[in-house]
Amino acid sequence: MPTVPTPFTIILLGAGRVASQLAPALASAGHRLAAVWSRHEASARAVAAPLGGAVLSGPAPDFTALPSADLYLLAVPDHAAPAVISAARFPAGALVAHTSGALPLALFAAQPAVRGGVFYPLQTFSPGRVIDWPAVPMCLEAADEAGMHTLTAVAHTLSQRVLAVGSAQRQQLHVAAVFASNFTNHLLGLADALLSEARLPADLLHPLVRETVGKALANPPFSVQTGPAVRHDEATIATHLAALAAHPSWQTLYAQLTASIQAVS
């Protein structure tokens, strides 16, 4: 990853999945991680210690006692973000950006003394996974031009794809990401469970999954749809629904997805 001639000083609020991946990436890009805050000291220490940052904990972080940072990144669960923003004390005029795909920039209205921003990495984060940061789209928004300039400069040290995305667009993007990632993963989990019930190895589906994803990435996905639904193969669909009788919720989902495929075919 590229480094910056003059590194930015960054304070991270949060120590979960996003924060634990973002912190070392920022440090590797040459930025100074001055501090990490979490409600739980052990969590903050686990993220900050390897990078030499200070550790803060407790329900109401006070950053006014620390040297001012160029950027305060809020990487906490969406449900916790409003309370953290309201409880935290930032230096006047501080640039504070959340990392959420779903929360609006207006979230910072509760802290009129700060300059709000959004620093959203469009990726799924899990422990033990190595993130290819240059390929991760960074979606940015800021309340002022100077804030956008800072966010853009930091984002470019991580990623080769940096975009300005407003709150309304980002919310739709986040919904699309849930369909593409979370729902797809759930469907793969159902498929894995069905193979397990049949005492078949899970990797039987791996070549099929790779080809399906490869086609969908190379073409408009609807244009390469295959299977009994798009063929209106009612006999096979009925057989599949009967095979799912032991899983009524999966049976319902199969029928709903079949109807959805047929509606756009």
Could you please describe the fold and organization of this structure?
By secondary structure, this protein is of the alpha/beta class. It has 2 domains: 9-165, 3-Layer(aba) Sandwich (Rossmann fold), CATH 3.40.50.720; 171-264, N-(1-d-carboxylethyl)-l-norvaline Dehydrogenase, domain 2, CATH 1.10.1040.20. The protein is built from 9 helices and 8 strands. It has helices spanning 17-28, 41-48, 81-87, 145-158, 167-197, 206-218, 228-231, 234-243, 248-264, and strands at residues 9-13, 32-38, 54-57, 71-74, 95-98, 115-121, 138-142, 162-164. An 8-stranded mixed beta sheet has the order 3-2-1-4-5-6-7-8, covered by helices on one side. Helix 8 packs antiparallel against helix 9. The two termini are 43 Å apart. The model has no long low-confidence stretch (mean pLDDT 96).
In short:
The chain has helices at residues 17-28, 41-48, 81-87, 145-158, 167-197, 206-218, 228-231, 234-243, 248-264; strands at residues 9-13, 32-38, 54-57, 71-74, 95-98, 115-121, 138-142, 162-164.
